[in-house]
Amino acid sequence: MIHGNDDEAFFEERGFGKLLGFGKKPALIVVDLIKGFTDSSMPMGSDLSSQITQANKLLDTMHAHDFPVLFTTISYDDDSFADSGIWYKKMEGLKTLKAGTEAVKVDPRLNFRKGDGLIIKKYASAFFGTDIIARLNSNNVDTVIIVGCTTCGCVRATAVDALQYGYIPIVVEDGVGDRSVASHEQSLFDLRQKYADVLKTDQVIETISTKYGSPAIKA
Q1: Catalytic residue among 154, 170, 176, 204, which?
Q2: How far from 98 is each of 30, 63, 81, 88, 131, CA to CA, in Å?
């Protein structure tokens, strides 16, 4: 077992952390930036103001290029929370994510526009039990840019599933957040080494501009 600053060198020497790059067409997945998670007064909430700022930069870029944007929310409509399986027994705060309440609505600070998709999920990954694969495939998407929360939970699960389903995951370092700094940093390290490219917002925007050219011009 290794510790501290030796981690990066150890993994690099053994061939971890290779860059995947961007594919032919990206989509943006905004994971669970809903009031239940972005309102610090809520049991599941924390201050994600800076992540929302970065997400909006990417939303503006994706909208300008007419690339697909998908938001996710966690929402339960069963009074007994049967649609959460046993997960709510592990995290009691999930009981605040009741369908029809303010907690499950996308944070109004985000640039959610007409034409953006909304994926309603019951578990951590945006891929588990949803129609996201059909939506990505119908748009010929092979790369998913991921922002949102939490880094150690739903973001990580979404990135790992994206990789396993054959999509290139790009996790935006300053566009994802967590309740715990330690969990956030360790998850980014793990994602970078094994599952995803981890880039900052400005790097993603620059790559989109360079690789895909000028935004689509609409009449």
Answers
A1: 154
A2: 20, 30, 9, 12, 21
Provide the whole-model pTM. Answer: 0.94
Q: Distance of CA 103 to CAs 29, 55, 75, 100, 113, Å?
A: 19, 19, 9, 8, 19
72's enclosing H/E stretch is strand 69-74
Gap between the Cα atoms of 193 and 215, Å rounded: 32
Of the candidates 166, 104, 107, 173, the one whose C-alpha atom is nearest the C-alpha of residue 136 is 166
Q: How far is 37 from 5, CA to CA, in rounded Å?
A: 32
Locate the domains of the chain by residue range: 23-210
- If we measure between CA atoms, which residue out of 168, 197, 146, 119 comes closest to residue 30? 146
Q: Please list the pLDDT of the chain residue by residue as tens digits (219 residues).
A: 455 567 888 887 887 889 999 999 999 999 999 999 999 999 999 999 999 999 999 999 999 999 999 999 999 998 888 999 999 889 888 999 999 999 999 999 999 999 999 999 999 999 999 999 999 999 999 999 999 999 999 999 999 999 999 999 999 999 999 999 999 999 999 999 999 999 999 999 999 999 998 886 665
| 149 carries an active-site annotation | no
Give dist(CA 23, CA 70) in Å, integer.
18
Query: How far is Cα 109 from Cα 49, in angstroms, rounded to an integer?
Result: 9
Q: Which fold has domain 23-210?
A: Rossmann fold (3.40.50)
